[in-house]
Amino acid sequence: EKRCSADIQTEIWRVMNTATCPNKNCGITIKREIDDKDRCLHMICSECKYHWCWACREEFRPGGANKNHDSFYHCKLYEEGKLRSEVKDMNRKVETVRKEAATFKWAEHLRSCCDKDTKNLQTLQRSLEAEMLKNGGDVGKYKFLFDAISKLILANDDKKRLYIVAFYAAMDHKKHLFEFQLKDMAEKTTKLLNMLQPNTRERRSLEDFEKDMKDLNQQTKLVSAFLQKLRKDVQEGECVTILDKPDDKSTGWFCMSCNRTNSYDKFVCECTACQVHGEKRCLRCNPEHHVHYLDDM
Predict the structure, then answer these.
(1) Does the reported pTM lie above 0.70?
(2) Which terminus, N or C, of the chain has the lesser number of Cβ atoms within 10 Å?
(3) DSSP 202
């Protein structure tokens, strides 16, 4: 909640998108009007019209005997590592904030996926309750089904908390094991989710679920037991070391399907594996694959 607060988010935006004019007679804070994708380093102060470089914070001199820039996109001082110490310190701070922002965006994406799954489960529950009321079904007969839905909703709440734990996890010998446990958690909960909400055009009836009662009961117990054990291990520090801020050694998330490391701004690996639900061509994280999925059926 603190990380999501307006003050924290404003400070992150300020560090990444504004700078102080290096003209000693000015010193106002101005916003960079282009993003890093453009790579243009040339800045003009809106107050004093001073021309300066975003990378080295020196006067922008593209021509002449004392030029320090080959173009709007190349800074000699930056590329040769000849920046002033205060500029280096500032760049390190910006890089740390940028990395933390990307990591946090990834964690929030994971949590939002849990919210979407929970919302769909609640819709399914209401639909099944309406169907049972309409047909005069026995509530006790389908208790196993509503128990599975309720347990999976609780599991999604646990997953949201565990993704925050992963955000603050230290990059030590425990982190690799913890990532495998999160992957295992995703696979188990996704299997139960697909049993309740398969990726098909036809909605399952109460009779369809009744046929799968044994498998649903077994998977529900498996999910509950696994998350109970994982919660206990986290609380006792057995599988993860929790820091008071994100570990700056973290560089990205690891795809266990193809052993590729992805940056945090990518939600799906190049191999199409989704690290939220642990499956390839995930329709929840890759909605554009939905048409192709149906074509393959």
Answers:
(1) no
(2) N
(3) S
